[in-house]
Write a structure and sequence with these properties.
It is a single chain. The protein is mainly beta. Helices cover 4% and strands 42% of the residues. The strands form 10 sheets. A 6-stranded antiparallel beta sheet has the order 5-12-6-7-8-9. Strands 14, 15, 16, 17 and 43 form a 5-stranded antiparallel beta sheet that branches. Helix 1 (59-71) packs across helix 2. The protein is globular, with a radius of gyration of 23 Å. The relative contact order is 0.11.
Length: 496
């Protein structure tokens, strides 16, 4: 199935940005816009991972930043080519950056000033158009766009982001074609391909330090505890957050808000939020729209401000729905993505691609991808190499471009394998990491360390760490403080 993209519109300036055409309507200024003849960049925002402006930016980070301006519907400079220009700043992308085509690319690249189409080449290298990768740019004297990925390289077709005119805010486009006579209303032959000198293929190390751990307790309700890995301590107690007859949990974070998803007693799916800016949980559980029933397992992951929620339905297949937290809405329906006899789910994101992992009817592990740059799901389920059998539960997490996948094997112990999506390969084997009688798994990453959490045979919760800076796993499982017992399911997520 095609991934649903949020409704987008568009925007642009020349030399100072892009060719501004005469339009009948002008986008109104937003609250985050200011009018000025100049502005300085003081921050790269939360999506800059606290890097200094002008420093290195991973490709996935440049694309994530571009998506923010689409989600925020950042308007084109309201005065077009006439000073004072409009400048934008927000908590995720920092700024201020000029609201035109070259200011937009400057923002995506985390530059220390808003360049123009004539000065972007000063901080980049010219490459072949056929070597373009996500986060590179196509630049002419009159306009510049951010390359988002090939649709069909042999056919010359691709996706891109741009600020283009005063009639539309920042927009995502799927009509790029190197063989076409025009691109974004300018001659295709006028563009050169540019690669920012400080762009990298390596995603940043997570700056999160707090893990939020939720379990389904013996009473069928949800309970929470928090671990601060920077301080080296846990809250030491479990707090009840309500709910009855809960069967499974998943969680995802957008901004500084954690969204927890739970399967209720009838197989319907509900959600509850914790806003870590205000320190408040939402009061009630709200049902996720779409009327799913009979769900038995679920997983959640994030690209930008969109949560992608998958469940195993009553038919044993996987079903998907998406929540756009910037727009404040869900897709409102569940789409079937195939599979039969599925037992458990996990998911992880590298770049702009979500990887879903499922335990099949025989305990083998399979994967299916959703590429949110192209809007496509992979057609088939592929088995994860290594010939694992008898798996009953699983969890997935990411450091860099590597996915770390853990399962509970037929022996009740935890087993691990790793997938390197930059290299396009898996380790090809599963390694035993101990434990006995394990029932459920969750994982979270702080810095370059992955923390795995497991429900043991008595319902107590334990943790074990993998430090990917040193390449070492902790030797023993340690119990999470708070004397929790009777847990049946769990989920973990992080915030800075």
């Amino acid at each position: 199935m095609r991934i649903k993209n949020a409704t987008v519109r568009s925007a642009g300036i020349v030399t100072a940005a892009c060719a501004a055409s005469l339009v009948l309507s002008v986008m109104p200024a937003h609250a985050d816009s200011v009018q000025s003849s100049g502005a300085s960049v003081t921050s790269t925002g939360s999506l800059g991972n606290h890097a200094a402006p002008g420093g290195a930016v991973p490709r996935s980070q440049a694309i994530a930043r571009a998506k923010v301006w689409v989600e925020e519907q950042v308007p084109y400079s309201t005065n077009g080519l006439m000073s004072p220009y409009s400048w934008w700043a927000d908590s995720r992308t920092g700024g201020r950056y000029r609201q035109d085509c070259s200011g937009f690319v400057s923002m995506a690249w985390q530059l220390n000033s808003s360049r123009t189409t004539l000065t972007l080449p000063d901080v980049s290298s010219q490459i072949s158009k056929w070597d373009l990768q996500p986060g590179d740019a196509l630049n002419s004297n009159d306009h510049v766009i951010l390359f988002a990925g090939w649709r069909d390289k042999a056919a010359g077709t691709f996706n891109y982001y741009q600020e283009s005119s005063r009639s539309r805010p920042t927009n995502y486009n799927t009509d790029g074609n190197l063989y076409a006579s025009s691109l974004a209303s300018h001659p295709t032959s006028s563009y050169s391909a540019l690669r920012y000198k400080n762009i990298t293929d390596t995603p940043p190390v997570s700056d999160a330090s707090k893990v939020h751990l939720e379990i389904v307790g013996a009473d069928g309700g949800m309970w929470n505890t928090d671990g601060d890995y920077a301080a080296g301590e846990w809250s030491g107690s479990w707090a009840s957050l309500g709910g009855t007859g809960l069967k499974a949990l998943a969680s995802a974070v957008t901004g500084n808000t954690m969204h927890v998803y739970a399967i209720g007693s009838t197989g319907r799916v509900y959600t509850k939020d914790a806003n870590y800016s205000t320190g408040q949980w939402s009061t009630d559980w709200a049902e996720v729209p779409g009327n799913i029933q009979g769900a038995t397992a679920l997983t959640a992951s994030v690209t930008g401000n969109k949560v992608h929620l998958e469940v195993i339905g009553a038919d044993g297949a996987m079903w998907n729905t998406d929540g756009d937290y910037a727009a404040g809405e869900w897709s409102g329906s569940w789409a079937s993505l195939g599979g039969t006899g599925l037992k458990a789910l996990a998911s992880a994101v590298t770049g702009n691609t979500m990887h879903v992992y499922a335990v099949g009817s025989t305990g083998r592990v399979f994967t299916k991808d959703a590429n949110y740059s192209t809007g496509q799901w992979s057609t088939d389920w592929a088995e994860v190499p290594g010939n694992i059998q008898g798996a009953t539960a699983l969890t997935a997490s990411v450091t860099g471009n590597k996915v770390h996948l853990e399962v509970i094997g037929a022996d009740g112990a935890m087993w691990n394998t790793d997938g390197d999506y930059a290299a396009g390969e898996w380790t090809g084997s599963w390694a035993s990491l101990g434990g006995t009688g394990l029932k459920a798994l969750a994982s979270a990453v702080t810095g370059n360390t992955m923390h795995v959490y497991a429900v043991g045979s008595t319902g107590r919760v334990y943790t074990k760490d993998a430090n990917y800076s040193t390449g070492q796993w902790s030797t023993d499982w340690a119990e999470i403080p708070g004397n929790g017992a009777g847990a049946t399911a769990l989920t973990a997520s992080t915030t800075p």
